[in-house]
Amino acid sequence: MASPQRPQLDPPDEEHAAPPPPPSPLGALPPELRLFVLRGLDVPDLLSLRATDRRHRAAVTDECPDVWEARHDARWSEGTERTRRRSRRRRRRTSLRGLEAWARASGWGWGPTDEPRQQEHEEEEEEEAARSDRWYDEFRRRSALDRSVEPRLEALDLNLSFRNEVWCGLMRDGLDIVDRLKKLTLCPPGMPPPSVVKARKVETGIRRCAAYREWKFLHDPSNRGAAHLEDGALTIAKFYGIRGGSEERFVLKELDDVAEYVEAFLGARLGPPEGEGSRYPVSEVLEEMKRLFRDGDRAAFRGNVDDYYNHRNSLIDWCLTFKTGIPITLAVIYASVVRRVCGVPMDIIGLPGHIVVGVPSDEADDEASRIFVDPFHHGRLLTLSHCRDIVAGYNVAFRDDMTRPLSNEEVWQRMLRNLHHSHSMQALAEDNAGERGASHKWKIAVPLRFFLTDYSQVTTNFGDLLTAPGWCPKYC
Fold first, then answer.
1. How confident is the model at residue 253, as a pLDDT?
2. Can you name the residues that pair with 347 across neighbouring β-strands?
3. Would you list the DSSP string of 313-378?
4. How far is Cα 459 from Cα 232, in angstroms, rounded to an integer?
């Protein structure tokens, strides 16, 4: 039986055709006014407007990238390099430029896999990230990550050290979920609930992984020479996370403020430097630096003689806060300030048993006239003869190579060894005190071993690190 044919319908007359949809009041506005209206809406209203029709969808998604950028920055303070690159208000270390591209290529990037991406994929991603409409997609991605954090925390087993897939997944999301974790850790004083304990451990683990990733980047042969002395010290401080993630902003601001303080006194005494782009002589800067280490001034930097083996003496953010520390940390601060004031990269001199700062040899007429500084003892200016006396105090014969400057990497490794020594003393003291007095703060030394260049266990990518000893929940 033949199937009935579908009846042909005559096209409607123009006068009986359905009327076109009324023009959108928002679309009728000039672009400047339309953008002004969109900027005044919050996120739920923007999403509701976007869901009405195609015209509003295009207006909300494509025509107002700066609106989504502002909403993104208001909601999240930390995130990927793509976010940092677009944020004009964020203070960043110049030594970390190119970190994300290096991490993707070398297997240290965040994300579901640590396989190095192909060059064409990297270029495609960079081009895509530069598009103005990506801020809406970035907002959606970060919102989805935030919603996934709490269910994963419930499923997280803190006692599982090996093959803890939930823990590894949270670590791979990295700094993208730190803001959500911070909100989850806010609770009244007292015994925190299990979810808060888990959130704090995950945040600690993420910050340690981020610090180690920066450490690998600073030590990559292709980046040598780009980092300043304080960069490695700052990365170590970020691993400890005493300031809860604000170490970078705090340290850079403090060093800049101290340098401006010295410049102000130099300007009052000597006037502005002669010539455009000229700097003050390094000898005048060292004279003015005495103000920062003046004996008897409670606001001045000083050596921590009373609590010398406290591990915090090796953390640059703690030393800048309390104006005290051990010789090597004070030397890093001293050299960083001088470089900001006069542009001279001071030498760190590793004498036997003591660290001093030295004026570079090319700034002195000869080795005998070279100036050295002892930041630990009130910033005292020294000569080569004083350095000989310091060495003789340790019953060691002086050699000319003892005033050889240490490289940045050598300075950072000495800081790490000081930290390991302090934690060994902590562990020994807790062992003698018994289980009742144990705080187990020394356990941070287990993952810290991976920062040492001569540590036997090598990690070549992010996946190796997450399965290495010391990077599981019980050490955070």
1. 95
2. 358
3. GG-HHHHHHHTEE-HHHHHHHHHHHHHHHH---PEEEEETTEEEEE--GGGSSSGGG--EEEGGGT
4. 19
